[in-house]
Amino acid sequence: MSAQEETLTLRPPSGDTLPDLLREAGAAARAGDRDEAERLYRRAVERAPENPEAWLGLGTVLADPEQKAACFRRVLELDPQNADARASLERLRACLPAEEPKALYCAFHPQVQTVLRCSQCGRPICVRCAHPFPVGQLCPLCVGSRRPLLYQAGLPHLLASGMATLAAATLLGLPAAYLARTGLGLLLAILGGPFAGSLLSQAALWAGKRRRGPAVQAAVVLATLAGTCLGALPFFLPYGLGHLGEGTLNLLLYAALAAASAAAWLR
């Protein structure tokens, strides 16, 4: 074999080199033959996977938007400064339909679907959990964190306030039950009830570390009523059930006014 024949044998066939493939693929694309252009660009990509021009051309002639986007992203991986790939990818993203948002379910009621989120922490919340604030809708946890410390009463505070009120109401119930059976029982109930309530509220604040609010109010009201009944037992039990009517209404009025006054002081 001569040297010329050996050179022809080693040389790739015409149209099979990378420049030839890119040139022929570009010509096919300009002529409108997308199938032929895609076939040639795919051969170019197989021959030179690291060639950004081949990937850019393939992305240009593909019909599937997802495949086109994948080709343009591959170009940017190989050549981050490629303006054509970046512009093509941006145009493609603008044409693609927006992804449907995933269904959100309330963080506190998992069975309730919602579109609301807490403005502070971002938790999904339903209308039952949403608390309107100037900054937006807040979830119960964020509302609690914004509540002043004096209104953050836990179980230890409630127990301390309740026990202190129960003890004080029992002590005050002794003279109240005695005076309720006298002729001035009604007047003393009207005047003494609010005064006793203020004393009971101070006992609750002292024992509960100054905590106040609806929960503390409820605990103090129950303790006031229970303590008044306990304090009145020595004056009513010895006489039997038949004598309950003597001063009972006055004592009940005293207990109601004391409980209402204590609750008002603990707002």
Q: Would you mind describing this structure in some detail?
A:
By secondary structure, the chain is mainly alpha-helical. The chain has 3 domains: 82 residues, Alpha Horseshoe (Serine Threonine Protein Phosphatase 5, Tetratricopeptide repeat); 43 residues, no CATH class; 116 residues, no CATH class. The chain has 11 helices and 6 strands. It has a two-stranded antiparallel sheet. A hairpin with a 2-residue loop joins strand 5 and strand 6. Helix 2 packs parallel to helix 4. The longest helix is centred in the middle third of the chain and has 26 residues. The protein is rod-shaped and about 120 Å long. The protein starts with a helix and ends with a helix. The N terminus is likely disordered.
General form = rod-shaped
Instruction: Please write the string of helix (H) and strand (E) elements.
Output: HHHHHHEEEEEEHHHHH
| Proportion in helices | 55-70%
Radius of gyration: 42 Å
Strand proportion, as a percent range, falls in: 5-15%
Strand order of the largest sheet: 1-2
DSSP summary: helix tally:
11
The low-confidence parts are 1-14
Number of strands: 6
Main beta-sheet strand count, sense and barrel state = 2 strands, antiparallel
Number of domains: 3
